[in-house]
Recover the amino acids of this structure.
């Protein structure tokens, strides 16, 4: 053994010596520590001069900026280092879901740094002329505030590193350009808006980095793996959250921005690797509520940006694809505050390098350089025009206050939580909201559904928002029910779709908070004459009354907080029943969909613990002392109360699944309701023990129906079918719904409309039967006097005959055109069967977001959620008349039994982007009520 060991050691030594003798560097075996540097080493600011006592980020961090993406921890460390210098001040605006710091650095001149609070107050004075009359003096002594925001998409890397170099330039730079910026501006740098997403992406890139970095954009080192890095922890696109304010990153950032009311806001991004560089101005369509001076300043800033890019010979463009309609991006939302909002889009190389079509190689170092120079050029434009910009800004605020007002009214109702939630989001954005102290009447108004309303009784406690306030543009942009696109653009858009199978619209065309919240809302020209006070949101603390009640305790199901309490009750194994019909306890009435905790079913009920849960959830619990219902009210011990089964939810995720839809459902369950759930990889469903769950959700997927079926595999589909048959509740939305409706899967009787065009007449006939079932016509003379029954409505008869007589080929052509003209993120009306448990807690009509080319039809008579007829389908956003005809009265939400279980499908995601609370209720009902109310299985206890 000793001899063998000596032989092996000698061989190893000779091998190592031989390798070194051959000139091979063993250290080259490690992955490239600087994959982004390449041969590009141009100085960031060629004319720059710097203080010697301030370390550059490269010196401080120990690697050259642009050689690789800086981890978030390094960005924070360097900003903490700069905080020691008197012209820089580091502040925090919160932390992410994963606990990473959200920070911003304020940089000012030596003269302005000691007076930051004075400058901030001056900015607030300029933003609200009611605070101070003498604007001339304010403008003369107030620097412009420029908010520079980087990296809201975690996989768009270069801007965060540019923020490191920019901070150094402004703190250490002594050259004339830097001095000009700081003499005229206070610069606020938010270096990393989405550190959770960036960290996730960097981990993937590090995993796939090589000794020789790949330049091929198709390499996994550039594409990454699901769920990629664009999104935050819950897989939301934070650059769609600016007014929805669902997430802590946005809530903290907007709070900080509104504390400063900046005059310029940069929103810095990356785009496709083979592109060049885009910056503002955008192109049409333009939102009609932008400030009047924005176009002038876009032009002025763009000229300066182009001047500096031309010095380096860099390629760039403006206006080609970025339109300015949706107000929910960072560069857009800030416009409605009065700032000059500007977008940067740099071709991204994912922290390394990319070979471009013409043969050149773009390195990460160069992309960082582009972002840095663009930032400096924009700041110089702001500095040069400081006085004019502040004058334009203040003049607009004066005009806003003098403008003829319109008024939004949100009627108080049973769902107080949702109204408070809306007001909270508005007041967070410094929008002034009043509360009606007395009931009043609207003589004439425009209702949220587009109809004219007259003599509407509005209760006390309702919310009122007037438009003649400093942030008039923001009020109009996010609350207006329906913002319309100019006909001239629509003509070009329709041509783009039909002739080129493309679109010039970038995002949703409907987004109104007024509609998404599902509240009773009105808009009035002028004032309301209501008696009002400032709207203050009092902390909610639930109250338990009648603690010795003999029958049990009830709570109203209409308020959104009811589901928070329901989740806590399930955690404690409290048995809860849901009422299919109204009931009462003394003078308190409870609508269908309310909940009852029976003492008889909970022999060990802890009333003290129940009180604590009630208080924490903000939900009132009412003791029920008498079980016999009066009049139409249900008896508390009868079968109109259904015992609920605590939901054990699994969400399907993984490659191909729509990250946004999965994330919205996950966030709803985990973050908002704090309810345990499981995530199953889509490719492993077939090998999983599904008996652990009674609810499984199939979110939308990018590959459509065929891709979904392929990822689930025959084994996964067979597993799901057996599981549903045994009593499971299977929920699908988008492509997940298409799987349920597919004839080869045969889980739901619903079908994709384009797959059953041949049989469309029978579906049209079923629709007529469904209408009759939901709103039956009774001809008393025909019934009692033996007269002939009234004929069917002409519309139903004509529709059925037309579908029958249509040539199939013509039907296909019509359907193909309508699919091309599918809704572009439009808000549509859904007619809800409020007596079906899926519709509990909803209004008769619920706004929902529709952004798909799928339409579902069914022969089922009872459809809990059906898109409204085409004449009243569109509520907000772009929906072509061909699309209205196709989607009108098709299925939004369907529920059908399968064995002992059930399948529930939604045509689109109910809780789109986490703030469509009106439609979200149907999804909550599906998950929370479904296992007890919709399956043949019963809970054993």
């Amino acid at each position: 053994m000793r001899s063998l060991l000596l032989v092996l050691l000698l061989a190893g030594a000779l091998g190592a010596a031989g390798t070194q003798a051959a000139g091979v560097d063993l250290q080259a075996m490690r992955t490239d520590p600087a994959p982004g540097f390449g041969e590009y080493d141009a100085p960031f600011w060629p004319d720059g001069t710097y203080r010697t006592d301030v370390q550059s980020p490269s010196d401080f961090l120990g690697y050259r900026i642009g050689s690789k993406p800086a981890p978030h921890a390094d960005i924070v460390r360097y900003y903490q280092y700069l905080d020691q210098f008197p012209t820089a001040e580091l502040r925090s605006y919160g932390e992410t879901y994963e606990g990473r710091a959200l920070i911003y650095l304020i940089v000012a001149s030596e003269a302005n740094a000691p007076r930051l609070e004075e400058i901030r107050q001056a900015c607030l004075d300029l933003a609200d002329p009611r605070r101070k009359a003498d604007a001339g003096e304010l403008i003369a002594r107030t620097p412009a505030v420029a908010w520079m925001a980087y990296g809201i998409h975690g996989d768009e890397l270069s801007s965060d590193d540019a923020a490191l170099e920019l901070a150094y330039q402004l703190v250490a730079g002594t050259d004339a350009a830097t001095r000009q910026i700081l003499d005229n501006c206070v610069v606020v740098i938010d270096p990393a808006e989405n550190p959770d997403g960036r960290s996730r992406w960097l981990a993937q890139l590090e995993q796939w980095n090589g000794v020789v970095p790949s330049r091929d954009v198709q390499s996994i080192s550039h594409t990454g793996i699901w769920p990629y890095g664009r999104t935050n922890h819950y897989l939301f696109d934070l650059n769609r959250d600016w007014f929805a304010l669902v997430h802590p990153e946005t809530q903290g950032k907007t709070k900080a921005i509104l504390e400063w009311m900046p005059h310029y806001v940069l929103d810095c991004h990356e785009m496709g690797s083979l592109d060049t560089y885009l910056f503002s101005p955008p192109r049409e369509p333009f939102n009609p509520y932008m400030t009047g001076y924005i176009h002038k300043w876009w032009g002025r800033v763009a000229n300066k940006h182009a001047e500096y890019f031309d010095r380096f010979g860099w390629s760039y463009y403006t206006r080609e694809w970025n339109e300015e309609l949706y107000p929910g991006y960072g560069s857009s939302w800030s416009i409605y505050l009065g700032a000059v909002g500007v977008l940067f889009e740099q071709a991204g190389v994912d922290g390394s390098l990319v070979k471009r079509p013409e043969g050149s190689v773009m390195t990460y170092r160069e992309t960082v350089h582009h972002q840095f120079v663009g930032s400096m050029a924009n700041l110089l434009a702001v500095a040069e025009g400081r006085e004019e910009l502040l004058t334009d800004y203040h003049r607009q605020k004066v005009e806003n206050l003098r403008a003829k007002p319109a008024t939004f009214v949100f009627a108080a109702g049973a769902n107080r939580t949702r109204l408070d939630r809306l007001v909270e989001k508005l007041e967070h954005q410094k929008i002034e909201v009043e509360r009606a102290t007395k009931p009043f009447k609207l003589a004439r108004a425009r209702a949220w559904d587009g109809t004219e309303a007259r003599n509407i009784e509005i209760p006390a406690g309702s919310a009122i928002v007037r438009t003649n306030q400093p942030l008039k543009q923001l009020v109009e942009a996010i609350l207006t029910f329906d913002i319309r696109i100019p006909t001239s653009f629509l003509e070009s858009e329709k041509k783009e779709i039909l002739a080129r199978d493309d679109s010039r619209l970038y995002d949703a065309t409907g987004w109104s908070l007024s509609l998404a919240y599902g509240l009773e809302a009105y808009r009035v020209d002028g004032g309301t004459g209501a008696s009002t006070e400032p709207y203050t949101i009092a902390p909610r603390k639930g109250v338990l009354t009648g603690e010795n009640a003999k029958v049990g305790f009830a709570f109203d199901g209409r308020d959104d907080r009811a589901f928070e309490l329901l989740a806590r009750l399930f955690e404690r194994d409290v048995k809860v029943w849901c009422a299919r019909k109204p009931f009462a306890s003394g003078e308190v009435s409870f609508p269908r969909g309310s909940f009852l905790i029976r003492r008889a079913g909970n022999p060990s009920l802890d009333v003290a613990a129940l009180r604590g849960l009630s208080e924490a959830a903000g939900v009132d619990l009412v003791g029920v002392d008498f079980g016999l219902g009066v009049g139409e009210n249900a008896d508390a011990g009868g079968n109109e109360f259904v015992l609920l089964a605590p939901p054990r939810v699994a969400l399907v995720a993984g490659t191909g699944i729509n990250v946004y839809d999965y994330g919205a459902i996950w966030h709803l369950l985990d973050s908002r309701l704090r309810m345990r759930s499981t995530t199953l990889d889509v490719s492993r469903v077939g090998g999983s023990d599904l008996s652990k769950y009674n609810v499984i959700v199939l979110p939308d997927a990018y590959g459509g129906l065929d891709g979904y079926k392929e990822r689930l595999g025959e084994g996964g589909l067979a597993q799901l079918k057996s599981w549903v048959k045994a009593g499971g509740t299977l929920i699908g939305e988008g492509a997940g719904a298409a799987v349920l409706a597919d004839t080869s899967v045969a889980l739901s009787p619903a079908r994709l409309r384009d797959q059953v065009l041949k049989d469309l007449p029978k579906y049209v006939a079923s629709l007529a039967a469904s209408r009759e079932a939901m709103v039956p016509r009774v001809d008393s003379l025909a019934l009692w006097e033996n007269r002939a029954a009234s004929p069917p409505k002409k519309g139903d008869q004509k529709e059925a005959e037309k579908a029958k007589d249509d040539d199939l080929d013509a039907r296909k052509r019509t359907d193909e055109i309508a699919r091309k003209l599918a809704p572009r993120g439009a808000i549509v009306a859904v007619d809800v069967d409020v007596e079906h448990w899926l519709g509990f807690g909803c209004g008769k009509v619920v706004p929902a977001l529709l952004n798909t080319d799928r339409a579902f039809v069914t022969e089922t008579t009872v459809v809990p959620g059906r898109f409204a007829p085409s004449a009243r389908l569109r509520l907000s956003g772009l929906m072509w008349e061909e699309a209205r005809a196709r989607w009108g009265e098709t299925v939004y939400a369907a529920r059908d039994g399968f064995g002992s279980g059930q399948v529930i499908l939604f045509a689109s995601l109910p809780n789109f982007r986490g703030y469509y609370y009106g439609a979200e209720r149907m999804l909550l009902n599906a998950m929370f009520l479904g296992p007890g109310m919709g399956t043949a299985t019963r809970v054993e206890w």
